[in-house]
Design a protein that fits this description.
Layout: E1 4-13, E2 21-22, E3 30-39, E4 43-57, E5 61-68, E6 71-79, E7 86-98, E8 101-111, E9 120-134
Amino acid sequence: MAQIIDVGSSTASTGSQTLSIPILSPEQNLILAEFGVATVASGSVLLNSTIEFQTTLGTPSVVFTLYRDGQPIFNVGANGLALMAIQPISISYLDRSVPAGYHGYSLGVSNNSLNILLNTASVTGPVTFSGVSIG
């Protein structure tokens, strides 16, 4: 039977339209939230996140990336909708066979549009990120 080993979370904002953080180019990956959890050998970490972003110009293509210890482990792409439209994103990912120890998890976002100057977006909130270590 699986046991909960540790729990971590990071909340930048719990409300809609409470933030206005520009989403930048892939070279300027923006870390929105981060936390650490302890794991046991061959354990897993269930990661969950809720984010909203808003199209501010054009039709941006954004990428949300989950990292373990600074290395990307999962990403989700989304395209912006109509101008000023707010789009909710929910991410759930099970990071399996995590080595035993203490690991840092982070949630990043970048604008992956071909022309970033004509296709812009901002994180508007909420931004929540949590993880449950299971062994």
